[in-house]
């Protein structure tokens, strides 16, 4: 089933073989609530509790490919959710830091990642402000939709080609942007349209 999913992702345009290999290797079912196990290899987002979702595999593959990671690079993920995206990043050899605002999700994801032997540094909190203690990051991936680009995140990007992947738009739908930092210069590039749950926080949307 995982091989079929990878074929579907290939047909939809994902080309990075390392990303495809990571998705083929990681058991997505282990990141899901048992009620949704039978849907683990459908290319769809699924509920994970707290009104949140594990992203669609295509979205995970698209964002990971667009990050253009090299092994050993430092990546900050905002929105740990189930931990699946963090596992994909770790599988690519990145040094992964991840923040989730819901404690129950963060703790469950932390346990899963540990079970699989992924050394991911995680915490609970408002990721819209980044994680200054571990900055700068070679890449930052925001897996929730934001109204605008959080300044804290661009400040924590490496000035030597750091990349920020972030969906920007309204609460219902967003455009994925890749923003590159060279020195103090930021260049944004719109990539494609997606639908994410909202980024709630000081530099995101208001909410509980
Ligand atoms: N990357 C996740 C995965 O692989 O399962 C899916 C993420 S889900 C689409 C978005 C997550 O972002 C939710 O779990 C939500 O609670 C979290 N979130 C929203 N605003 C946040 C914030 N300010 N800081 C940290 N996490 C946040």
Describe the structure.
The protein is α/β, with parallel strands linked by helices and 208 residues long. It has one domain (2-207): Rossmann fold (3-Layer(aba) Sandwich). The protein has helices at 2-11, 17-25, 57-67, 84-91, 103-115, 151-155; strands at residues 46-49, 52-54, 74-78, 95-100, 121-124, 139-142, 160-169, 174-182, 185-194. The strands form two sheets. It has a seven-stranded mixed sheet with strand order 5-4-3-6-7-8-9. The model has no long low-confidence stretch (mean pLDDT 97). S-adenosylmethionine (SAM) is lined by residues 52-55, 78-79, 81-82, 84-85, 99-102, 105, 126-128, 143-144, 196-197, 199-201, 204.
Mean pLDDT over the residues: 97
CATH class: Alpha Beta
Order of helices and strands: HHEEHEHEHEEHEEE
Kindly report the spatial arrangement of strands forming the biggest sheet.
Answer: 5-4-3-6-7-8-9
Report the β-strand fraction as a percent range. 25-35%
Total count of strands: 9
Helix proportion of residues, in percent?
Answer: 25-40%
The CATH homologous superfamily is named Vaccinia Virus protein VP39
| Rg over CA atoms | 16 Å
Largest pleated sheet:
7 strands, mixed
Write down the CATH topology.
Answer: Rossmann fold
Oligomer: single chain
Number of domains: 1
What would you call the structural class?
alpha/beta
């Amino acid at each position: 089933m995982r091989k079929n999913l990878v074929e579907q992702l290939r047909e939809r345009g994902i080309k990075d073989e390392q990303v495809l290999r990571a998705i083929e290797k990681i058991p997505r079912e282990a990141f899901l609530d048992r009620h949704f196990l039978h849907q683990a290899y459908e290319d769809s987002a699924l509920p994970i509790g707290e009104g949140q979702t594990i992203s669609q595999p295509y979205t995970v593959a698209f964002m990971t490919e667009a990050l253009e990671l090299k092994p050993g690079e430092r990546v900050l993920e905002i929105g740990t959710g189930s931990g699946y995206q963090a596992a994909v990043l770790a599988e690519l050899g990145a040094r992964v830091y991840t923040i989730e605002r819901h404690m129950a999700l963060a703790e469950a994801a932390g346990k899963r990642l540990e079970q699989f032997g992924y050394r991911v540094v995680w915490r609970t909190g408002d990721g819209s402000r980044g994680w200054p203690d571990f900055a700068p990051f070679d890449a930052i991936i925001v897996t929730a939709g934001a109204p605008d680009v959080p300044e804290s995140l661009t400040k924590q990007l490496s000035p030597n080609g750091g990349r920020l992947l972030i969906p920007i738009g309204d609460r219902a739908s967003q455009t994925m942007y890749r923003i590159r930092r060279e020195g103090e210069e930021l260049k944004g590039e719109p990539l494609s349209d997606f639908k994410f749950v909202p980024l709630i926080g000081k530099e995101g949307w208001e909410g509980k």
